[in-house]
């Protein structure tokens, strides 16, 4: 309407062929409304462009479920018995023929501003997404012959904000400086984890376990953030650490929330500098709010390779706290028994959960644009040669000895767990871009 108000809508139907034919189709609509404020109102001259927007949308997905997760399949072994081929169940997951596609609904509101003749731009968005009948894996007793199964049962909620600010602080003659900052803050919460066999709300779901296997595990906990790092802690009485008569720490067997396996905050800053035919770009990437259980540091304690295990090797150590009765306790551990102390520490996950926030120099690129006067003689419109480096440096991190991005899986079931991660690769290469 008058090039200022826009309304659009869609209706979509997806059919997932690998799911049960009785329940494998999903309909979902979307609708969006936006208004270009600079076309409707007389705004101050600093605003080059201004727009507000709002939308509602639904979507569906199959969660990556394969056909073999709905029906029991078998496989043949290479061996035979009395001339007959031997076979067995294929896989260790109980098939569920009733898995259906889950659905999500989302509302979003946003603002897009461009000011000072496009020298400064701001794009802001808020969203709230609810996912119902989420497909999640559940661990089951291995005595059944299987390890896990997948069912529809959870209701999850995501809400957050996204912000992009870009601008040109300096533009003078042949020199220009462009800068861009983007960030996102997302809160994911377990709203409903279903009911147990007695009809009571499920309080938590156990996901992947650390390969160290001292009790640390990723869990969804009802009413809490998704993907929490949980495990046991050093027992405390009125805030005082508890030790036995030999000065060894006593573990509290009840699992506690030790951290959040997913970073709620992510962001980056890109600076680009241009001078005549030269350009320089630097990208700093950052994460904050997440935690990590480090199996590497845990085993470094076990083998005595961790720097912290140096203390006491020559002269012993002294620990102070309380005993199981809450009475004050101080124990001198001789040097020949210090390894017992560190072995006991190694068995308590709390000591190996770290703040996994970090900042990295993610990319640095130096480029040269070949002169058009030269290129035109050989039939080329433009050509740019660049030297590019990626993952060049960790600028800050509180995780010792390893890359804070390390992990042993890319799935959501184990974010926040690390085990013997290899060093991250640093890449340096060349790029040639040619347009004819």
Structure notes:
The chain is mainly beta and 436 residues long. The protein contains four helices and 26 strands. The protein has helices at residues 37-40, 295-303, 338-346, 372-375, and strands at 5-15, 25-36, 47-61, 74-81, 84-89, 93-94, 102-115, 120-139, 148-172, 175-192, 204-209, 217-221, 228-234, 236-237, 240-241, 251-260, 265-275, 278-288, 291-294, 317-322, 328-333, 353-355, 358-369, 382-397, 417-418, 427-435. Helix 2 (295-303) runs antiparallel to helix 3 (338-346).
Rg, Cα atoms, Å: 29 Å
Helical residues, percent:
under 10%
**Nearest-integer average pLDDT:** 92
Structural class, from helix and strand content?
A: mainly beta
Alpha carbon gap, first and last residue: 41 Å
Please tell me what the overall shape is. Answer: globular
What is the tally of beta strands?
Answer: 26
Total count of helical runs of at least 4 residues: 4
pLDDT below 50 for ≥5 consecutive residues: which ranges? none
- Tell me the strand percentage band: over 45%
Encode the helix/strand succession as letters: EEHEEEEEEEEEEEEEEEEEHEEHEEHEEE
């Amino acid at each position: 309407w008058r090039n200022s108000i826009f309304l659009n809508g869609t209706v979509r139907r997806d059919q997932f062929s690998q799911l049960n034919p009785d329940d494998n189709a999903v309909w979902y609509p979307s609708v969006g409304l936006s208004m270009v404020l600079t076309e409707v109102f007389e705004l101050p001259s600093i605003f080059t462009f201004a727009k507000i927007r709002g939308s509602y949308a639904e979507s569906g997905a199959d969660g990556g479920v394969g056909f073999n997760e709905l029906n029991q399949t078998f496989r043949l072994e290479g061996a035979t018995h009395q001339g007959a081929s031997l076979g067995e169940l294929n896989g260790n997951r109980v098939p569920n023929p009733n898995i259906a596609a889950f659905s999500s609904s989302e509302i979003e509101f946003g603002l897009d501003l461009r000011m000072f003749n496009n020298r400064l731009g701001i794009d802001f968005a808020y969203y709230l997404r609810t996912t119902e009948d989420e497909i999640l894996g559940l661990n089951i007793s291995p005595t059944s012959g299987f390890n896990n199964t997948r069912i529809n049962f959870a209701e999850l909620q995501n809400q957050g904000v996204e912000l992009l600010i870009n601008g040109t602080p300096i533009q003078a003659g042949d020199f220009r400086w462009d800068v861009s900052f983007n960030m996102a803050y997302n809160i994911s919460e377990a709203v409903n984890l279903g009911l147990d066999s007695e009809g009571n709300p499920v309080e938590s779901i156990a996901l992947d376990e650390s390969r160290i296997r001292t009790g640390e595990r990723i869990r969804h906990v009802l009413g809490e953030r998704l993907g929490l790092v949980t495990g046991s802690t050093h027992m405390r009485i009125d805030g005082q650490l508890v030790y036995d008569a030999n000065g060894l720490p006593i573990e509290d067997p009840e699992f506690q929330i030790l951290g959040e396996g997913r970073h709620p905050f992510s962001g980056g800053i890109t600076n680009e500098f241009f001078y005549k035919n030269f350009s320089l770009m630097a990208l700093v990437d950052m994460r904050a709010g997440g935690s990590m259980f480090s199996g590497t540091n845990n085993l470094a304690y076990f083998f005595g390779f961790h720097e912290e295990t140096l203390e006491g090797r020559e002269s012993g150590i002294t620990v102070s706290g309380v005993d199981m009765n809450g009475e004050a306790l101080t124990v001198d551990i001789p040097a020949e028994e210090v390894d017992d102390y560190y072995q006991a520490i190694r068995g308590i996950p709390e000591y190996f959960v770290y703040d996994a926030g970090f900042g990295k120099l993610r990319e640095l690129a130096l480029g040269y644009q070949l002169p058009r006067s030269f290129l035109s003689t050989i039939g080329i419109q433009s050509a740019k040669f660049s030297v590019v480096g990626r993952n060049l440096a960790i600028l800050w991190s509180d995780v010792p000895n390893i890359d804070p991005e390390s992990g042993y899986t890319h799935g959501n079931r184990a974010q926040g767990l690390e085990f013997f991660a290899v060093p991250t690769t640093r890449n340096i290469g060349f790029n040639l871009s040619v347009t004819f």
